[in-house]
Sequence to fold (1004 residues):
Amino acid sequence: MKKKGKIVIGVVVAVVIVLLLVGPLSVWNWVPTLKKPLVTYKVGALLSVTGPAAWLGTPERNTVRMIEEEINEAGGINGHPLEVIVEDTVGDATKTVTAAKKLISKDEVLAIVGPSRSGTTMAVIPIVEEAEIPLISCAAAEAIVVPVKRWVFKTPQKDSDAAIRIYEYMKEQGISKIAIITGTTGFGDQGRGQLKKFASEFDITIVVDETYGPEDTDMTAQLTKIKASEAEALVNWSIVAGQVIVAKNMRQLAMEIPLFQSHGFGNVKYAQTAGEAGEGIIFPCGRLLAVDTLAEDHPQKEVLTRYKEEYEAKYNEDVSTFGGHAWDALYLVIEALEEVGPDRGKIRDYIENKKGFVGTGGVFNFSPEDHNGLDKYAFEMLAVKDGKFVVAE
Amino acid sequence: MSLGSQLLQYLFTGITLGTIYGMVALGFNIIYSSTGIINLAQGEFVMLGGMMMIYLTTIIKLPMVVGFFLSILIVALMGALFERGAIHPLKNPSVITLIIITIAASILFKGGAMFAWGKETFALPAFSGEEPVRVLGATILPQTLWILGIMAATVVFLIFFFGFTLTGKAMRACAANRTAASLVGINVKTMVLLSFALSAAIGATAGIIIAPIALMDYNRGTMLAVKGFSVAVLGGLGSNVGAVVAGFIIGIMESLGAGFISSGYKDAIALVVLLLVLFIKPGGLLGSKEKGEFKKF
Amino acid sequence: MKKKNLIVLVILAGVTMAIPLGLGNSYYLNVLVFVGIHSLITIGLSLLMGYAGQISLGQAAFFGLGAYTSGILSTKFGVSPWLALLAAIFVTGGIAFLIGAPALKLKGHYLAMATLAFGYIVYIIFNQASSFTGGPSGFGQIPRFRLGNFLFKTDVHYYYLVWILVIVALLISLNITHSRVGRALRSIHAGELTANVMGVNTAKYKIQIFVLSAVYASVAGSLYAHFITFLNPSPFGFHFSIVLVTMVVVGGVASVWGAMIGAALLTILPEYLRAFQDYDILIYGSILLLIMVFLPKGLFVGIFDLVKKRKNRQ
Fold:
């Protein structure tokens, strides 16, 4: 009896596996009759919903789902329902490439929002350029749009502008010798490059240049080195855990110099996780997180308030700038669809010439030379005070 | 900062790291000793311990002490459940099959934690404040002292357990010779179950005590497993003293490497040392060569 | 080579060559290109694990070395991708020889650790030697393969290129397993001491097969580099080494066919599970667990055993 049961289960497992193998390659796709007429507008989204950058992809996914629902409840785009097909990239280049090809050739989407990370964006650029499909990346690296690629746009502010804003602020404070510490991820590495590139322009000397792995849990060794140097400020450029651990480790070492973070710090949860150690951190950031302090007539006020309130009501968690990048990207596509209809080439042209698009990241002015459309003033320098973000003096 | 106090600071950092690695390695050793398996889900036990503690104390708001023991108990039960569900049913499996099963289990634990607690990074308040203690110009966190103390207690407990209790001795007997152990009436399968529960408990303890320093998220297990495995091998698989010593060696290598050579290559430096040790002494620092061999894949 | 294997190989060749005719869709072909690339690595790994009984938890590093050598030579030094692929074979093979000579003296988990450490060090170098590798940001614009005026551009082109190489690799591997070398390797697996006593130079064979498996991984890496045209370190880490070993074991460690089945299953399964959104990770883990618990010898052997048992009873 027991043996027989085992065999049955084994056979079932085998059958399931065979089905799984055959499934995605299944004959269904060769049957042309099931194809629906093209009434639904399909938009793809490549987001790192799981994996090491899940903290980035999850608010992005929540945001596009929320927008999809809203649009469809309001009757769609010119009557066409909107379908956003979210593919999880796991933050991995290989998986992103496959997912991009699925969106392009199987789902036949009109445009792609994402990927979430700089590295995965770089990996899919050749594919979207070849397939001629507009891609609006949610990743930070300037290299995504410099040099300009015909089909590639991005909504987050450029990392070069983040570095420039940090340096401008330092100049005002009379800081000239700094230390930098960056995570060895695409984001941290690009940030390190920008910090080194612009330092001399602002007469800033980088006296210590340290790195750490994305999964490291203790940076006191690097920080000890920095403490012993003559650095007057420290810039940390990394993602999640690293940003909090550096702050905590600095407190442990009783380091008095100010800590600057990158725009990767754009979630108030990080400041709360850092607790006391997070007080006084200064970083460049979109205005989303300081919306309460904006003047009523600020051009972004309405959009930011709306996004923040809707997101926080729906998901019961703090809004982050990361979800905002997806908000900007998807609404750009929606607006283009509204104006020019379901034509990939026209969508691209529309976005490229779009001026005065009010998003969460700033007011976008795209042009054939600028596929990001934001300048350095899209950043505000924020500081952590009592576990909240306020505009830095 | 004078060079002396810098050096002392690197040493403190290394000891903190080393204790964490050593704790994970102890968990590896216990399962290895009784089954010959390298349990690649060991890192997940650490993660689960940390996450469970954060959940119990900051969200359900249980007192720290209750949360501490309850978390360990729950994770130990998970370890036992894992053994009963996935290891126990197999008859004469090869070691490599078992290792892949631990990989599958680690995927499941990770996925479960992601659904239970989400993807954010969480912090646990330190056991006794975050005000650093100053020693000769260097600083050390009270939490590090807790980590050191609890590891010492764990090692003492293990020595006592394996040396002086009947169950512990029985487990050691299984490690030495399974057939002989079962011939003298030891229930080998029960000992395997116990070893999983014990090892999960130690992993969970490690997760709880490091969470205030290292923070915790669902994705943390793999890296901890790799470090723990490295340390267990360097110390000699099956040798608990070896695990502690090797933990300090790797931890201090990493922090000195980051301080004096290059922070980018610090892990590589520690691994090169590990490789050199293995090439010279193939059984690890304190292990016997035979113990590290297994017959079949 | 056994006749049975030859027949299967011919059938496989026929089927794989015919698939693109029915599957115009580039997404499915793209998945199958990855199945081919992963198969190349797992075939080599199964020779090492199944026949020689040695484990490697650093195979992703050889894959990466192939990819990076090929990518760097062709992008930064203008070397033709074919020559770059050849050069990568020598570089990777050479490194495998250097690391294999001392490492293969280790046994069991210690060997596993040594290969893991090696893989990790290589991964760190990919991240840190940024003047060559582009660091964590990686580098792009890697040229594609070209034959005269013919540019390998679409997924169909790469599909044929990859699968022809897979079949060549299979041919070589099946020949090895049924030759003197193969018997010697199996004798190592069965018992190294006995093999030594019988006059088999086990150390030599082990290194040879280790280098061969690295060469397969290197070729796969070159194909990957010129297919994706962008490289960063993340696909070549410890995680992928584990996935590769898992593929081999799930398929059945004792046969190159099993290695291919494992590669196919674990490459296609996540694609299939996309429909389950976040739950994919749980389903993936459960399937893996079920296979190992119910078919501990892997799919290939396991299913055959089940069929045999059935027959015997009837």
User: Anything to note?
Assistant: Residues 292-297 of chain B have pLDDT under 50 and may be disordered.
